[in-house]
Amino acid sequence: MIEKIYLVMLLLFTAGILMPILTNSSPKVTNILAHGLSVLGCLAIVACSVEVFIAGGMTFTYAMGLPVGPLIIRIDNLAAFFLLALGAVGTAASIYALGYSREYYKQRLGLMAALYNCFILSMALVLTVSHVAYFLIAWELMTVVSFFLVNHEYEKTANTRAAFKYILMTTLGTVFITTALLILSMTVHSLDFQMFKGASLTNTMRNIVFFCALIGFGTKAGVIPLHIWLPEAHPAAPSHVSALMSGIMIKTAIYGLCRFYLEFLGVGPAWWGEVVLFLAIISSVLGVLYALMQNDLKRLLAYSSVENIGIILLGIGAGMVFMSNNQPVLAGLAFIAGLYHVFNHAVFKSLLFLGAGSVLYSTHTKNIEDLGGLIKKMPYTAVFFLTGAAAISALPILNGFVSEWLTYQSLFYLPQAVTGVIPRLGSVILIGLLGLTGALAANCFVKAFGVTFLAKPRSKHAELAQEVPGTMLTGMGLLSLMCLALGVWPQWMLNLLQAVVSQSAGLEVSSLFNNHWYAAAFNIPQANGIIAMPVVVGMLVVGLIAAVLVYNFNGKPKNVEGETWTCGIIPNARMEYTATGFAQPVRRAYKTVLRTKDNVTTDKSLNPYHGVKMKMTVRISYLINSWLYQPVKKGILFLVNRVKPLQSGNLQHYIGYVLLVTVVILILGVRW
Amino acid sequence: MSVLFMLIQVVVLAMLAPLVAGVIKNTKGKMQSRKGPGYFQVYYDLRKFFKKDNVFSPTVSWIFKAAPYIYFATALGAAALAPTLLFDRGLHYDSIFVLIYMLGLGRFFLALASLDAGSTFGGMGGSREMFINVLVEPVMMLTLLTVALRANGTVMSQMAGAAASSGISLSAILAAIAFLILTVAETGRIPVDNPDTHLELTMVHEGMVLEYCGRSVGLIFWGSAIKQLVTIILMVNFFLPWNPAGILPPVVWLILKVLVIAVVLAGIETGTNKMRLFRLPGLLIATGCLSLLAIIAM
User: Fold this and answer.
1) Over the stretch A52-81, which tens digit does the pLDDT of each residue have?
2) Rounded Cα gap, residues B21 and B214, in angstroms
3) Neighbouring C-beta atoms of residue A657, cutoff 10 Å
4) Which of B119, B130, B292 sits opposite A442 (nearest CB)?
5) How many domains would you assign to chain A?
6) What is the distance in angstroms between the Cα of B198 and the nearest Cα belonging to chain A?
């Protein structure tokens, strides 16, 4: 059954790739055909994953006639979980694409639609292929296809630059992944992932594999300091592709890390987990701090992805520490926290990217300083974006809160698992920093939603905005419902995750959860915990009813309209608080990290008695760039400049080189 | 059964919250050589507010109208979760993180509403409120951890129990000082914010709700009073949990201690000046260091 669904899925996407390229139909037909096929394909992915959870995992092989052997497809619970996220988000994004692609009717629509299908297919392959060579092919296919999608609007130079930065960084990452996989396959003399389990490596080799996987997958996931491609590439792609890149593609790296650390390498030393935790907390704090500073809506969301990858890795890192300290139950809790956040982030970040895409669709600008007042022009988009913003700020009763709560719980028991004063204190500080991340995220999304959607429009573009077509709203609506369902009713997802991590050695989750309809309760040796989302919902509902009763206690009030008070002048959009202004307190308080430079210039040519024209530019510089990438770049340029004299452009010199090389080869040949 | 007790707790706390606010105002007045408003003045204010009609700016959207309801509902939710220790909950749903993020929900919507009317004051207030929250939240987590680590869990009723059963120690005193500063910040009082001001340079919370009037402002003020009472109860039951046994029933101790904290808050407000916004990071970093020391000293 699974195999049949899988084949259907492959066929649907293959058709989705070929149709738009081979048929020469009108853009409208291409759009409906290609994205309709990808909707069906994504539904097939969901069906495949559900079938795995019902009937159990499966392995099947296809003879490919290649020297590396047959293609092995293995879908276990871990793969099925990521497939479920891919299918769910992919369905919504594809429905959305039916409307959004109208923007691209004159911009190589067929190519984009084909690449889009290929992109989803490649992610599905990455998650299911269980063979070193084919995995790397699928991995590179995913990278290359998304490179083309990032570069789709190549008319803008910034996009091309972003695309090349992206391909450079991720290709470097692939080098490390390949190394890690080859070390493993050389040790067990097999290319099948299933053989890697418990490979007998020496300690040095294990550490090398650990670091290679961390660097390789960390690049793709956008872990600081390897994130530099992410905030540029994600905004450059068409919005439904950005949604998939931020929502799912970076999660395939988390999938890879889970494969390595849960399955291939097994329980490692505690410092592995501590390294992961260290990178995780740096990513989350710096990621959200940079997100708050952005005024480009999609760039803001991209930086926030860096933050959320950090939160996911906090769960996974804590799980690794617990595993090595022989705390299998706590490790299970921590991994479940991380994986729950994987799914949540996939849902709400895609929702936010689709929302940003809708704003872009109807205003043609991503700069939030030019937006405002959209809640009245685009009421549904506003509700959906608000849902995503509240979810990512971890507000109850939405899904972000559940995974944040689980992450807090697992970090809370960390001081007991680690030994030594400094690790203990460090793990306490982690909780404080996670609190800081949460507060900064709330600040960031108040700014993003408030400045974009509330008050008066700040430009003509925003004034003329209209609600987006129904297909786009349907896509966003689906994801909003998922945010709500995963927040109010986390039990089913927790049960699912229990099945996902139960296969791993070193984790013990069989008795972790004791779920009721009203609460998800977990038993850990140290204490009991309970997360009763329905109770929280009940409290808020009762509270709202009470508020309404109190409000109308003295009969219904009369509502009168009165202009906002601006000291007697008629208010206009230029009096509103700006996004830059909203972030100013944090920018100033964190100026040592952000390296801000405010520059105010006054236009002297105007008569000062008629009011002066001032311009303020705010620059922040990125520490990682100046500390890490600039020196590397300078070093490479230095070396290149040293080698450059060899290439003189003089034919005689080149003939001389050929002669020299021939002589050297001859000498070497004689010697051996 | 526990649902009924919870509802009773919510009603009682909501009804008493304006009284605590009135006590603070009155004491503050007396300390400043004024007569001060009466203990029940806040009730009279609220009654007045709830009789009034509303004026809404044409700029605002439904967010502005919905925010007071949500703020009030989250305050009631916080009151339901507050660890008064006066009844057995049966089910341990009262996690400290739920309380913190519940209050965060109210703050999120109020900050959005501050941007909605399109006035500069509102935006400034919202921006500063979120900024102060960025400073307070990590320190809040650390300070609450001192109790949670003793209780080995984050359930508030158990945390309060563990705090009561452990004796007075250096760690507990340091944590209590830290949380007192946080209470001042959370309730929007001098030196962090000034609850009595309408001067654009000094107001934070007031600036954020400047565009509200009538019943909406009634909901917000009442909600703030409830939130203040809940914070004081946290202070009392987590950081001053010791009752001399046998003399008085726990309820009386709770009431007495809440009143003492109210007087202390009034004293702090009288004795200090409003700090500049950008000196707050220093204050809260110092508070964070206090709570870290408290954890080390455990």
Assistant:
1) 999 888 888 888 888 888 999 999 999 999
2) 19
3) 12
4) B130
5) 3
6) 14
